[in-house]
Specification:
Layout: E1 9-15, H1 22-30, E2 38-44, H2 51-62, E3 63-64, E4 72-75, E5 79-86, E6 92-99, H3 111-117, E7 123-126, E8 132-133, H4 138-148, E9 152-163, E10 168-173, E11 180-181, H5 184-189, E12 201-203, H6 212-215, H7 221-230, E13 233-246, H8 263-282, H9 287-300, H10 309-318, H11 320-323, H12 328-337, H13 342-352
Parallel strand pairs: 1-2, 1-7, 2-6, 9-13
Antiparallel strand pairs: 3-5, 4-5, 5-6, 7-12, 8-13, 9-10, 9-12, 11-13
């Protein structure tokens, strides 16, 4: 499909029921000022809120659908696809897949739509349909740096936080106070929220030998960040280049029931633990970092007193084989987390946890 176009960057944009937000995402893609062609692959997973109509209207208004040398339309039993070039930004291309049925509910993979269409790009940028970019030089800055530094596997940036509930910016998420390389310890301990996903651009070759324990992880950005840091340098830019929506009921985070211990939630948690165990086994020089993070991860996931006793038992039984290895300090912290006595919790957090470091847990 359009193999004559040498795209340098592929933007992966997965979206579902993001009708109020998708135009911001598409505007961010189209405003990029680059010296190279790039393609935004937008996969709408059969949205029911009118998002497909918004995307189609955007294509009609901003893309040249009459250029027979470029435009491509295709329909299968699974999707309707449109490929076209922007009317004004000649380096901007869209490949839109409007899926005919919800692939997520049928557990059917959507990644083939990204991979099959554009195999040539050297770099992959991430931005889901409810987030967006605000720096027109985002692609140029990040890709330009990676072009000059072959050992750089990923770049990321400071990101603004926009509250959907309050309809305003409420702060920023950032790794450091200045431009610098990211520390592997920070990536592991501070989890996937440390690096903002809509700010990420990484080398496509990272996917060539991507481990199965990463592919099977229910959370995609966290293992990708770890893998990139283990295989080269990850560069952080302190410029605000993207916006991440918080308090959004349509996001993956917003749809989670954090008080209930369901089988589905345990399956997600187990996939993350398995991912970290996979890294610990394959990279023994960082085994302590991963094992201590698993201990912290399991501890923080323990249902509090606000959850039912049944849910707490279900969770503790599920991770019993891991928990039995942990030190007495870990187990004390577990008991305190389960208490409903506010004064005891405040005392514990102020005078004991102030110097408590999961990194020092003994095994």
């Amino acid at each position: 499909m359009n193999n004559s176009i040498e795209f340098k960057v592929r933007i992966n944009c997965m979206t579902f029921n993001h009708a109020p937000y998708i135009m911001d995402a598409m505007n961010g893609f189209c405003m990029q000022q680059s010296t190279f062609p790039y393609v935004a692959i937008i996969v709408d997973d059969a949205s029911t809120d009118g998002e497909p109509e918004i995307i189609n209207r955007y294509l009609q208004d901003h893309f040249d659908l009459e250029d027979k040398g470029i435009v491509r339309n295709e329909e299968t039993d699974d999707y309707v696809m449109t490929f076209a070039r922007h009317k004004k930004n000649q380096n901007c291309f869209f490949a839109v897949f409007l899926l005919k049925y919800n692939h997520y509910s049928k557990k059917k993979e959507k990644w083939p739509y990204y991979i099959e269409f554009a195999k040539t790009p050297l770099y992959i940028a991430l931005c889901e349909g409810d987030d967006y970019w605000i720096d027109p030089l985002k692609l140029q800055k990040q890709v330009g740096f990676m072009e000059l530094h072959p050992n750089c596997t990923m770049t990321c940036s400071r990101t603004k936080l926009f509250s959907e509930n309050r309809q305003k910016y409420i702060g920023e998420t950032f790794c450091y106070e200045k431009d610098r390389d990211v520390d592997i310890k920070d990536v592991i301990y501070r989890t996937g929220l440390f690096i903002s996903t809509p700010s990420i651009i990484y080398r496509a070759v990272l996917g060539n030998n991507y481990p199965e324990y990463c592919r099977n992880c229910a959370v995609g950005d966290y293992p990708l960040q770890i893998y990139a840091t283990l295989h080269g340098k990850v560069r952080y830019f302190n410029d605000s280049m993207a916006v991440y929506r918080t308090e959004n009921s349509q996001s993956w985070m917003g749809k989670q029931d954090w008080l209930r211990v369901s089988d589905a939630r345990l399956k997600v948690l187990q996939s993350e633990v398995n991912m970290m165990k996979g890294f610990a086994n394959e990279y023994p020089q960082y085994r302590d970092l991963f094992e201590n993070k698993i201990a912290e991860f399991i501890n923080e996931g323990i249902p509090t007193w606000r959850s039912s006793r049944k849910d707490r038992k279900k969770y503790l039984d599920f991770f019993a084989s891991d928990i039995k290895k942990y030190s007495w300090r870990w187990k004390i912290d577990k008991m305190i987390r389960l208490t409903r006595i506010p004064r005891l919790r405040r005392y514990y957090e102020r005078y004991i946890l102030k110097d408590f470091n999961y990194h020092k847990i003994s095994y």
